[in-house]
Design brief:
Strand 7 (211-216), helix 8 and strand 8 form a beta-alpha-beta unit. The chain has a single domain, classed as Alpha-Beta Barrel (TIM Barrel), CATH 3.20.20.150. The chain has an eight-stranded parallel sheet. It is 42% helix and 16% strand. The protein contains nine helices and eight strands. The two termini are 14 Å apart. The protein has helices spanning 22-32, 53-65, 90-111, 129-148, 169-179, 190-195, 200-207, 231-240, 260-275; strands at 2-6, 36-41, 69-75, 115-119, 153-157, 184-189, 211-216, 246-249. It is globular and about 45 Å long. By secondary structure, it is α/β, with parallel strands linked by helices. Helix 4 crosses helix 5. Pfam families: AP_endonuc_2. One of its GO terms (molecular function) is isomerase activity. This is Sugar phosphate isomerase/epimerase. Residues 27-273 form the Xylose isomerase-like TIM barrel domain.
Length: 279
C-alpha cells in the first residue's frame, strides 16, 4: 500500500501555527517514510497565485531530491474568496471553477499529479438545496471537462462535519452520477463518517470500484489507532476491494498543540503495523 500525508498539519490552514515551508514539509515527510504528500493549496506552501514558473520548478526539484510524490491536490475551501462551488453567488462559483483549474495546473506542473480532491460545496440560509446541488453539478462538470484533457480525475468528498450539501455516501454517489463524467469518482474521510455515527467500512464496500482516494484519521483528527476507530477493518476492506490509491492521512491540524511530525510518524507506523497482519 502507498501512504501519503496531507500538508494541512504543516501549513496555516486552518490553524495558523505551527507552519512550515514546502521544502521543510517535503523533507520531514520523506524522512518519516511517506510515499507521497497531499498538497493543500494554501499558504505557506501552495497558494497557486503566489507561485511563478521558477518557483514551480524549484518545488519539482525538491520532490525529486526527496524521492516523494504529490499524491493529490486539495483546493482550500472557505476563506475570503469562498471557494464554494455551490455558492448562490455566481461570481464566487466562477472564481472557484477557475481556482480548481489553477490547482490542477499546479499539480501537473510540479509532479504530473492526476488527482484533484473536491469538496462539493455548501448552501447558506435562503438558498434552496436543489439549487445549490445544480450549481455544484455544473461547476464540477466544467472542471472535469478541463481536467479530462490531461487525464486528471476529480474525487468527490462527502464532508458532513463542515458542510450541508454532500454529507453521506449516497450523496456522493448521487452527485457523481449526476455529473455523467467518467473522470469524476469518489473518496471519503473517516472523520466525516464517524461524525455521522456511520461505519467507514460500509463506505468502502459501497463505493467499491469508484473509490479512488481516501482520507484517514481517528476520532478528533488524531493518529489512526489512538482514539477508538476500527482501522483493522478499514485496512482489510481496502485490501478486499483491491484499492490501489494512496492511503492519505488528513489529521493533526485542529489545534496548535498537535505536533505534526508526531502525528505523521505515529499514523504511518500504526497503519503499516496493521497492514502486515491483513488477511
Amino acid at each position: 500500500m502507498k501512504y501519503a500525508f496531507n500538508t494541512w498539519a504543516y501549513s496555516d490552514f486552518p490553524c495558523w501555527v505551527p507552519s512550515y515551508s514546502f521544502e521543510e514539509t517535503v523533507k520531514r515527510l520523506s524522512n518519516i517514510g511517506y510515499d507521497g504528500i497531499e498538497l493543500g493549496c494554501a499558504q505557506p506552501q501552495a497558494w497557486p497565485y503566489f507561485i511563478d514558473k521558477e518557483r514551480r520548478n524549484e518545488m519539482k526539484r525538491c520532490l525529486g531530491e526527496n524521492n516523494i510524490r504529490i499524491s493529490s491536490i486539495l483546493p482550500a475551501p472557505g476563506g475570503g474568496p469562498g471557494g464554494n462551488i455551490a455558492s448562490a453567488c455566481k461570481a464566487e462559483r466562477n472564481w472557484t471553477v477557475q481556482y480548481w483549474k489553477d490547482c490542477i495546473d499546479l499539480g501537473l506542473e510540479i509532479d504530473n499529479c492526476k488527482t484533484l480532491v473536491c469538496v462539493c460545496g455548501w448552501y447558506i440560509f435562503g438558498t434552496r438545496k436543489r439549487d445549490a446541488w445544480k450549481w455544484s453539478v455544473e461547476g464540477i462538470s466544467t472542471v472535469a471537462e478541463y481536467a479530462k484533457q490531461n487525464g486528471v480525475t476529480l474525487v468527490l468528498e462527502p464532508t458532513a462535519t463542515d458542510s450541508n450539501l454532500v454529507e453521506s455516501c449516497d450523496d456522493a454517489l448521487d452527485i457523481m452520477n449526476d455529473t455523467k463524467m467518467d473522470n469524476v469518482r469518489l473518496m471519503f474521510d473517516t472523520t466525516h463518517v464517524l461524525y455521522r455515527n456511520e461505519v467507514p467500512v460500509d463506505y468502502i464496500y459501497t463505493m467499491g470500484k469508484d473509490l479512488k482516494h481516501i482520507h484517514i484519521a481517528d476520532y478528533d483528527r488524531k493518529s489512526p489507532g489512538t482514539n477508538g476507530c476500527d482501522f483493522q477493518g478499514i485496512m482489510q476492506a481496502l485490501k478486499d476491494i483491491h484499492y490501489d490509491g494512496y492511503i492519505t492521512m488528513e489529521n493533526g491540524f485542529t489545534s496548535r498543540s498537535m505536533h505534526p511530525d508526531v502525528i505523521a510518524r505515529t499514523s504511518l507506523e500504526n497503519l503499516k503495523s496493521i497492514e502486515k497482519n491483513l488477511n
